[in-house]
Amino acid sequence: MELKPFNIKVEAVVIRANGDREEFGTIGSTTLKDNSEHSIDINDKK
Amino acid sequence: MNTVLTSTTRSSLVNAITGSGYSLSQPKYLSWGTGVSPALPTDVALGNPNGPSITGTVSTISTVTSGDTYFCTGTFTSSSILSVTEVGLFTSQSSPAVGSLSNQVNPTDTTITISGYSKFSTSFPFNVQVSSEVMTVLSGNGSNVFYVTRAANGSSKSTSIIPALTPVVAPSGNMFMKSTFSGMTLQSGDSMLFNIQIQFV
């Protein structure tokens, strides 16, 4: 039996000096179960 | 690229469950950096932190069940052009000590020559992050050499040369969690907001 005790999600938003807001969504996530990571292309902005 | 709870965090959480006592302070301090090695559970610091940490805003939120998720958010502002590649949650706000290798480190070396020696503690031993390897600094020569134990904290000894100029980082407090990701380029004056969620399932 595999354990999956937690999920981590890291989201990022860049706020440019001119006030423009760029939401990148989830840039990193993982579970202890498989130590996997699921990054997205940072150009794949929402 | 990777996202992990560190081995220290994992054992402390187990201790909390077993009643042995949770030993970490609240991980509410965020640090960002430009390190190039993927996060590993054995890491003790960011690969190349950029400036001091900031105090995040912490709350408990509900993702699936009531109160199942720790949430920490914080915003950094860049004072130069940066390619941000990593973020970490720490239990202490003080700035990490950061130097760099003056010479390459070979796999069999047990001494490292560094610049920035005076930034580090004179109280030995302590751990430093050097690329993906953790080394325990046993002593120093007072100016530019550390005598180290390789492959500390369960990390693997680098089987190849660690090049000169690689950052040498002594953490401030315990690193609770670390995430590495594709570089995000910021210009001076740009800000970056991180939302970190740890959901128990």
List the SSEs and their pairings.
The complex is a heterodimer of chains A (46) and B (201).
Chain A: E1 6-15, E2 21-31
Antiparallel strand pairs in A: 1-2
Chain B: E1 2-5, H1 7-18, E2 29-33, E3 54-55, E4 57-61, E5 69-77, E6 82-90, E7 97-101, E8 111-115, E9 126-130, E10 133-140, E11 145-149, E12 167-170, E13 175-186, E14 191-200
Antiparallel strand pairs in B: 1-13, 2-3, 2-6, 4-5, 5-14, 6-13, 7-8, 7-12, 8-11, 9-10, 9-12, 10-11
Give a description of the structure:
The complex is a heterodimer of chains A (46) and B (201). With 46 residues, chain A is mostly beta strands. In chain A, 0% of the residues lie in helices and 46% in strands. Chain A contains no helices and two strands. Chain A has a two-stranded antiparallel ribbon with strand order 1-2. In chain A, a hairpin with a 5-residue loop joins strand 1 and strand 2 (21-31). The N and C termini of chain A lie far apart (36 Å). Helices cover 6% and strands 44% of the residues of chain B. Chain B has one helix at residues 7-18; strands spanning 2-5, 29-33, 54-55, 57-61, 69-77, 82-90, 97-101, 111-115, 126-130, 133-140, 145-149, 167-170, 175-186, 191-200. In chain B, the strands form three sheets. Chain B has a six-stranded antiparallel beta barrel with strand order 7-8-11-10-9-12. A five-stranded antiparallel beta sheet of chain B has the order 1-13-6-2-3. A three-stranded antiparallel beta sheet of chain B has the order 4-5-14, with no helix packed on it.
